[in-house]
């Protein structure tokens, strides 16, 4: 969709901001450009909408050389969001959002209806915020209006230059999440500039890590964190890249351990025998519908056995099972898994199929989590699926 072919930009004073850059962004892909200040990210982006002209090379948009397209016409196909949102202070939020459709000659009513739809999409109720002026909004709300405005004419391409740079970390994370949700709906081709590696990892389908005017690595986040291409990239992504990697590695069914499973209505005797047969100290407890209820320990079951006769009828697992809320759907990140374990002070979490049925798939323990991370790194190195890769792990103690 966007293709850079040997693009170089030298400014009049001799500064080479971008040096022989070649890369491609696929349709619907979100590529983050990350790197230290002055490495050429903004120059790269501004060449796409011809705010800056390259010295050498060419840029293609949907196969068309952009140097042959009228810049004004070109910019209508490209939404642009910058840090200083640049809203018109004397126009309402609704009119700001409707600016581009208006310029495109849409009728006022249609333009405003579209603007209201977009404000809704970015999480601003148009009936509450539509008639306000920009200085009556918080920084985060202004950024959302900026995103809504950029999307108003439904351009296939979005350029975003540090759009969330000016807001505090909490609002920033919320805007990032909202933007990811939005992108999953609108699937624009996005170039997103940031100097924050966390943001690049979080948002990018692929990340371009910039050195001085050059791309040092252009890969999916997990590959940048797992196998940095150069010492520079390793240094840039940080010594804690293993931790960052947790957030881009998801739980797969093959990562899970399979403890014994018993049901709420199983008799204590039957459940205890089951655990004894497998030499297990605890079992997962499911209800009739195969949904997670919790767990039961071998000690509770055997203790219960010796106290038999207290109740009428035979005791069941229901009498001794404990509820368990520490669970995640398969596909959640290993970081969420680790965080859930800590939050519930649990030695393992249950993993459910998450496809609406919420069937129990297995459990993730710290050892399995570590193994999953190692296998995903190894799988990437050889270009295989994680399930196909074996790694040696530290033996259980
Ligand atoms: N108009 C200009 N004339 C001369 N040099 C320029 C001009 N604009 C940018 N530069 C230089 O080009 C280099 C790349 O700048 P650019 O703005 O692309 O970097 P950046 O990676 O976006 O940085 P930041 O994260 O600080 O915005 C820098 O050395 C900058 O000083």
From TrEMBL:
Question: Where's the ABC transporter domain?
Answer: 2-237
EC number(s) on file: 7.6.2.9
**GO (cellular component) term, any one:** membrane
One Pfam family this sequence matches: ABC_tran
**GO biological process annotations for this chain's record?**
glycine betaine transport
Keyword Protein transport found = no
Task: Write out the GO MF terms.
Answer: ABC-type quaternary ammonium compound transporting activity; ATP binding; ATP hydrolysis activity
Family statement? Belongs to the ABC transporter superfamily.
Q: What is this protein called?
A: ABC-type quaternary amine transporter
Naturally occurring in which organism (per UniProt): Streptomyces eurocidicus (Streptoverticillium eurocidicus)
